[in-house]
Every structure is written in structure tokens, then in C-alpha cells.
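Quick illustration, no need to memorize.
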Amino acid sequence: MNRPNLLAAFALMLVFEGLLPFAAPRAWREAFRKATALSDSQVRFLGLASMGAGLLFFSLAK
């Protein structure tokens, strides 16, 4: 992946990350509060699932 594609991917990630706090700040705050109550193993599993979904979508996009 060349530098412009990497920059575009990072920019798109920031756009998606900002959607929920912009559109529904109360729901985002509640989701964040619930996430802080999760155990380390649950957070790790969510991270693994997120990475797996990202890799799947990336492979489908190619």
C-alpha cells in the first residue's frame, strides 16, 4: 500500500470514528461507559473481532 492510500484509509477511519459521537453523543457516551466496565479479556476479544472484520472487508475490497 502506497502512502496516499494509507493516508486515505486513515482519513476514512477518522470519519467513521467520528460519526457516532457527532450523530448521537448520548448513545456514544453510554456505549463508552459500558465498554469501560468490560473485562480485559472481553476488550481483547472485541479488538480481535474488529481486526478480523477489518481484514475481511479489506480482502473483499481488493
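Helices lie at 3-23, 25-36, 40-61.
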